[in-house]
Amino acid sequence: PGNISDKSIEIGNDLVNIGSILLDWIDDNTPENVRKYFSIPLKDMIKDSQNNLLRILHYPPIKNNEEEGALRASPHGDINLITILLSGSEPGLQILTLDGNWIDVPCNKGWLIINSGDMLNKCSNNFYPSTIHRVINPKGSDRTKSRYSMPLFLHARDEVVLSKNYTAKSFLDERLKELGLK
Fold it and tell me: 172 near 79, Cβ under 8 Å?
């Protein structure tokens, strides 16, 4: 924490508060037959979580040696409940629709993008799908620009029960092992 600016800490705290409001809204608008799977209210799952993670991602300018169709970030879903993403500095983020098409996410200053994650999928018994997304390489003159992105990954506390098979910790550990990060 000593090398993190006060402004970054403030942004992170503000995003956690927004996330709590969003999770409360999701909870309130989830059908009762799905909400019964939540071990506790969604916003309570992140209360005092030590696993929330605010990242600043830098995608450097593209050199001319990248293969056609190469990606800056491969298709994936996030492990957590929801991700709150400050709109990127440059276009490139795409999401996979339920009918299998990739669509561009607008890159408008001041916008927040909300992705549902694998933990929300687990605790809702697959009602909420994880948002599959990727980052494509820019084309033309945009290739010389860096792209910055600032996601906040909201994780349930370790002891939160996500399903009959998983706590948040056991699920996170399993996923990190699958990714070779643990």
Answer: yes
**Interatomic CA distance for residues 73 and 50, integer angstroms:** 26
For 46-143, list the strands marked E by DSSP.
53-54, 57-59, 71-76, 82-86, 93-96, 102-104, 112-116, 133-136
Q: CB of 152 within 8 A of CB of 56?
A: no
- The amino acid at 148: Y
* End-to-end CA gap in the chain: 23
- pLDDT tens for residues 85-96? 998 888 899 999
User: Which DSSP category does 80 fall into?
Assistant: S
Q: Is the pTM of this model over 0.85?
A: yes
Rounded CA-CA distance 110/145 in Å is 20
Residue 60's SS3 state is coil
- DSSP class of 89: S
Number of H helices, E strands in the chain: 5, 9
